[in-house]
Amino acid sequence: SVQNSEYAGGLVVPDDITGGDDGLITAYLWDEASKQDYISYYYPLALSDEVQADAPANDGPPQISLYLGSYDFRDGDTVSTSPTLYAKIVDENGINVTGSPGHNMLLVMDNSIQPISVTQYFSHDKDSYSSGTLVYPLKDISEGMHTLQVIAFDSYNLPAVQTTNFVAKASSAISIEDLLIYPNPIKKD
Fold first, then answer.
1. Would you put residue 18 in left (φ > 0), alpha (ψ -120 to 50) or beta?
2. Alpha-carbon span 138 to 164, nearest angstrom
3. Which uninterrupted H or E stretch holds 43?
4. Are 105 and 152 within 8 A, CB to CB?
5. How far apart are CA 111 and CA 129, in angstroms?
6. What is the per-residue burial (b if ≥16 Cβ within 10 Å, else e) of 56-84?
7. Is residue 117 within 8 Å of residue 102, measured between CB atoms?
8. From CA 85, how far away is CA 139, in angstroms rounded?
9. pTM of the predicted structure, to 2 decimals
10. Which single residue of 2, 34, 99, 114 could bond 119 by disulfide (Cβ 3.0 to 4.6 Å)?
């Protein structure tokens, strides 16, 4: 919040930064009471590529959860041939979204040697630097069994790879994939 025209904020700077004296911080502020927005900046900002001695330890890579089509998706499910990928990514030290070479968020379909850079499809959760969601529309996937991998890095450039399998099937007007009879066995009255 803004108090006496001052505010405070914080951010985790990824390991990838280039040091120097030409950094810039831009802040966008919205005042709900007056329905006005403001912009503020600080320049030049000196950046060092030295790690702070009191920086928190990196306890592990990001945690990635993959969903196709909806958040009800489970590994091996059947989806349409054009599902939306949802990847929830969490890391207490922040998620690297710099898009720097070698540390992009990547999507790999069927073990392809040509991964797709999907960093720009990631958005942090509101008021969070440590969690967010990657939303990427997949288009015209061939019918059949597929493997999908998402690769993401935390701010210390520690990578995580999450894999899921799915079956792509062209949808028709009505389609029943799994029919579960309940109660089983059925009782006659």
1. beta
2. 14
3. strand 36-47
4. yes
5. 30
6. eeeeebbebebbbbeeebeeebbbbeebe
7. no
8. 10
9. 0.79
10. 99
